[in-house]
Every structure is written in C-alpha cells, then in structure tokens.
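Memo to structure team: turn this sequence into structure tokens by end of day. - J.P.
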Amino acid sequence: MSDSIAVYLNSFPGLYWQTAKPGEESRVQEDKALSARLKKRDPEAWAILYDRYCSRVYRYIVLRVQNQTEAEDLTEQVFLKALESGPSFRWRGAPVSSWLFRIARNLIIDYWRTDKSKKTVPLDNLNLRDTVDPAEMAELKSDTRQLIQAVTLLTQAQRDVIELRFAAGLSTAETAKVLGKSQGAVKVMQHSALAALRKRLSEWSEHE
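Reply from structure team:
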C-alpha cells in the first residue's frame, strides 16, 4: 500500500471514536434557532445554510456520481428542494445537516434509478480542488483514483457511511440520523468498511 493511502486511512480511526466536542450543546441550540428561521424562509438563514454546507454537499455528491457537471446540478437541486420543503420542516432535535443530507441521498438514489446508463467522468478530470482538504489533496493526488475505486467495491451500507463520514464530514450522530440507524450500527459499519479498504488497497499494492 502506498504511503499516502496508508496515512489517509490511518487517520480514520481517530474519527471512529469521535466524542462530543466542546460547545456541542450550543451547536444544538444554534441548529434549533436556524431551523425556525428556515421554516419562515428567512433569506439570511438560507444564506447561512448554503455557505455552511454547499461544499460538503457537493463533495458527497461528486463522489457518488463521479461527474462534476451532474454533481453541481444535483447540489443546486438539494438546496432548491430544501427551500421548497422548508416551511414544513419540523425540529425534532436532529441536526439540520441530517435533514439536508437525507435530501441529497434521496436525490442521488433517484438519479441512478431513473437512468442506470449515466456516464461517469474519469476521476483525473474532476475538479477536486474544492472537495478535499488542500494538504490531503497534495498527499493523495496520485492515489485518488485507486482509493475511490476501492470505496466503490464496499457494500452499499459501508459506502454510505464512509461517504457521509469522510466526504461530507458528518459526525457519527449526524450520519446515523441520515441513514436512520443507531450510532452503534454506524460505528460497526465504519469499522468494517475501513478494514475492507485497507485489505483491498494492500492487495492491490502487493500486485503492483
């Protein structure tokens, strides 16, 4: 396995046992207040939502569809759909991000369901500059295709967790809300997914 991929994967376990961060309670209250403003279609609240999550939604979608143009279009659809459903949004204690990424996930499912012949764009041609941390991008540049290929070989449940946790940057709790699963189930799937990724990439490295 290449050193860059090893570094990338070895950074995941620290997130696996993620604990509550300082100020988490204040973030819950902030989300509650934001949801009330979104329900009223407050323009400033929608601007906050867009600025906070646009790049993360795009990062999640582009890895699922592997087509930059389609990903940009779907990202806009996510926020348009959120705007349309905003008045009916009800605060139930879940993070606003969980609501937004459920919309994104459902749109992706519909995207592939309506036309299974959709074409992907070679990963080398995707504009990833805005979708990953610059330091990680420099480190992973030559191995991104291999890493993404390995992710596509995971089970769909494992892939959902990996993409939400590490592409979208959601917490374990947020990911659980999006997928409708317990945090324990998310942790188990994440652990098995990372083990499968390490095994697959190690096997490929041995055959190079």
